[in-house]
Design brief:
Helices cover about 40% and strands about 20% of the residues. It has about 120 residues and is an alpha+beta fold. The protein has one domain: Aspartate Aminotransferase, domain 1 (Alpha-Beta Complex).
């Protein structure tokens, strides 16, 4: 891991550590799921919140926001495809959560893996 990658990872973990419970624990779990599902992604701060990119200098592909709910979102740089079915041409790009159970953890990992291929 390069020194820039280490610095970025530290900034992300510091940002998560500064959050109040129970959000801190949930955000840490989401971060861990992302890093396990796509270990090649590089954590970084993007617009003040944790994000994950293909490299330290590339635009973020996935962001985490700590607003009224935790928001896992794909940026416009992530590969998108139309959802089809009842969602037609809409492209899923954001998911809100308040906690992380096993099923949600599995779905987050699937979403992350879909971004990195």
């Amino acid at each position: 891991m390069s020194s820039k990658d280490e610095k970025n990872l530290t900034q992300v973990t510091d940002k998560i550590s500064a959050m109040d419970e129970p959000r801190r624990s949930t955000m840490q779990r989401v971060h861990d799921v992302i890093m396990t599902a796509a270990p090649a992604l590089k954590p970084r701060i993007w617009y003040g919140m944790p994000a994950y990119a293909a490299s330290a200098s590339a635009p973020a592909l996935i962001t985490l926001r700590n607003d009224e709910r935790i928001n896992l979102a794909l940026t416009e740089k992530a590969p998108f495809r139309a959802a089809g079915g009842v969602d037609g041409q809409l492209m899923p790009a954001a998911w809100y959560l308040e906690d992380l159970d096993d099923a949600t953890e599995t779905r987050v990992a699937e979403i992350v893996r879909s971004v990195v291929g």
